[in-house]
């Protein structure tokens, strides 16, 4: 391959994907997100990846017959993606150039790749997205089964991939970090395909069965205004490995950090580095010619540089065009409205929760009041008011919710009569209670029955924070604090005042 031609390819197809393993809409370098392009959107991408190694003699006494070796593995692609309808887009990619490192120096053009993708299906308020992809490889290139690239035998290949994405911001996916997972099955459909022909004997080595594999990937995106920082862990695992006369028949795994520069809304540039994590194992037959005879080369490249340029071509004008005033204003308005609606929704949810709690409290209070009113009437009916015929019932509620009832008990010596409030309080005190919430009082009159002065004093002594609830025969209530009913009360503070 001439150096001028390589330079031309680098400049014209300013390079995303080593191995052409993943491409299409909303993708990282080697993985897909679960999102699809909007309907009517057309994206164009060019990409290139390369690996190189130079073999030079080390030392001063260089043999006369020694020649330096410069090894290149270069691939360049171009692709278009179109949003056909909501949740569905399609991508077509052609290999512009592929190094073969064999007698034939390169494929140009190479194979054609098609991706059909269903995605942008939301779960959990759109925080999770999922989708599916059907990848197809059509053998339009002249040569296949070449070294140092993923296996292909020149047949129509196809697969099925599940796509899963998590977005930290469920409303605006590009504003916060996201995680992506791909898991796919791929069929090389190579049974009966000629893998290698012996140039001396003309004997053809054919694949005995179909090679199949699992492809996987885990990706992370951390976006900012101008840059996206990405990290991908990806690879394959053969279910049925290719025949021994195939190159690249081993499993591989790579780690790829990359950065995406976004100077314009409609243009971005990618730079990434593949780093191989798996060992340099070669299980191919020794009958296959090895292009790395003069260099200690890995079966898969130990590293690869990835370059890519991404453009949005359609819509050309109007609100759909990224970067246009209409589009920017439309997006700003949309985001502002979205944020306002989200805040309004949160406020409504908070208010609904508050109302629900208030309703539950009211229902509980209503049930309690009905229970209290019933106990009040029962206590009042048990009153011993043979002289005044004025019956009073009282219900005392402790801090823990225990209930003590009381009623008035009269004596022929009127001064020895005890009121309902004190009966209930003394019962509770005799049982060891010391902390009280409320005391309910119901008299036999038509209105409210406030406690007498003596009861107020005793309540002030033993329950200074208690709430006094006066109840009439209709169940209506009137609330007061004991300190309101007995202002400037005489208490133990005066008895034990220090001089």
Q: Would you kindly provide a written description of the structure presented here, covering whatever features stand out?
A:
- The chain is α+β, with helices and mostly antiparallel strands.
- The chain has 6 helices and 20 strands.
- It has helices spanning 3-12, 325-381, 420-430, 453-462, 482-485, 492-495, and strands at 42-55, 69-85, 88-99, 106-107, 112-123, 128-138, 157-167, 178-187, 194-197, 204-206, 212-223, 227-240, 252-264, 267-276, 303-314, 392-398, 403-407, 436-443, 467-471, 477-481.
- It has a 12-stranded antiparallel barrel with strand order 1-2-3-5-6-7-8-11-12-13-14-15.
- Strand 18 (436-443), helix 4 and strand 19 (467-471) form a beta-alpha-beta unit.
- The longest helix has 57 residues, at 325-381.
- The radius of gyration is 42 Å and the shape is rod-shaped.
- The relative contact order is 0.09.
Report a brief summary of the structure.
The chain has six helices and 20 strands.
H and E order: HEEEEEEEEEEEEEEEHEEHEHEEHH
Counting DSSP E segments of at least 2 residues, the number of strands comes to 20
Strand content: 35-45%
Silhouette = rod-shaped
Give the averaged pLDDT, no decimals: 85
- By secondary-structure content and strand pairing, the structural class works out as alpha+beta
Major β-sheet profile: 12 strands, antiparallel, barrel
State the end-to-end CA separation. Answer: 109 Å
Number of helices: 6
The percent of residues in helical segments reads: 10-25%
Strand order of the largest sheet: 1-2-3-5-6-7-8-11-12-13-14-15
Unreliable residue stretches: 1-21
Rg over CA atoms: 42 Å
């Amino acid at each position: 391959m001439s150096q001028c031609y390589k330079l031309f390819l680098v400049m014209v197809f300013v390079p995303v994907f080593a191995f052409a393993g993943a491409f299409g809409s909303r993708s990282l370098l080697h993985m897909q997100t679960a999102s699809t392009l909007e309907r009517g959107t057309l994206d164009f991408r060019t990409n290139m990846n390369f690996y190189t190694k130079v073999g030079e003699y080390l030392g001063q006494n260089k043999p006369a017959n020694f020649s330096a070796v410069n090894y290149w593995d270069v691939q360049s692609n171009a692709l278009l993606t179109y949003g056909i309808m909501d949740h569905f887009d399609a991508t077509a990619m052609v290999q512009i150039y592929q190094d073969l490192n064999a007698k034939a120096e390169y494929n140009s053009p190479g194979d054609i790749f098609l991706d059909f993708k269903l995605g942008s299906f939301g779960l959990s308020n759109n925080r999770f997205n999922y989708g599916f992809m059907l990848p197809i490889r059509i053998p339009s290139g002249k040569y296949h089964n070449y070294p140092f690239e993923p296996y292909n035998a020149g047949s129509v290949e196809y697969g099925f991939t599940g796509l899963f994405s998590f977005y930290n911001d469920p409303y605006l996916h590009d504003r916060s970090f996201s995680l992506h997972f791909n898991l796919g099955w791929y069929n090389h459909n190579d049974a009966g395909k000629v893998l290698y022909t012996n140039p001396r004997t003309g004997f053809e080595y054919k694949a005995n069965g179909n090679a199949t594999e699992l492809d996987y990937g885990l990706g992370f995106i951390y976006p900012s205004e101008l840059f996206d920082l990405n990290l991908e862990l990806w690879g394959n695992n053969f279910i049925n490995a290719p025949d021994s006369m195939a190159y690249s028949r081993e499993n591989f795994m790579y780690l790829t950090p990359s950065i995406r520069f976004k100077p314009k809304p409609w243009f971005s540039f990618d730079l990434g580095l593949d780093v191989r994590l798996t060992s340099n194992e070669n299980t191919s037959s020794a009958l296959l010619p090895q292009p790395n005879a003069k260099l200690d080369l890995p079966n898969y490249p130990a590293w690869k540089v990835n370059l890519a340029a991404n453009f949005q071509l359609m819509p050309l004008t109007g609100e759909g065009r990224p970067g246009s005033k209409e589009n920017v204003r439309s997006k700003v308005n949309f985001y502002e409205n979205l944020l306002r609606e989200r805040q309004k929704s949160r406020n409504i949810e908070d208010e609904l929760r508050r109302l629900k709690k208030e309703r539950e409290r009211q229902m509980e209070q209503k049930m309690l009041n009905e229970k209290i009113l019933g106990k009040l009437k029962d206590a009042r009916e048990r009153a011993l008011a043979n002289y005044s015929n004025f019956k009073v019932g009282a219900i005392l509620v402790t801090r823990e919710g225990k209930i003590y009832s009381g009623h008035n008990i009269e004596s022929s010596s009127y001064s020895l009569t005890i009121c309902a409030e004190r009966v209930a309080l003394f019962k509770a005190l005799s049982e060891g209670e010391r902390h009280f919430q409320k005391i309910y009082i119901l008299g036999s009159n038509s209105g409210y029955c406030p406690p007498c002065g003596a009861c107020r004093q005793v309540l002030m002594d033993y329950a200074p924070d208690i709430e006094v609830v006066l109840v009439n025969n209709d169940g209506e209530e009137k609330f007061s604090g004991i300190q309101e009913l007995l202002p400037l009360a005489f208490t133990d503070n005066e008895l034990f005042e220090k001089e």
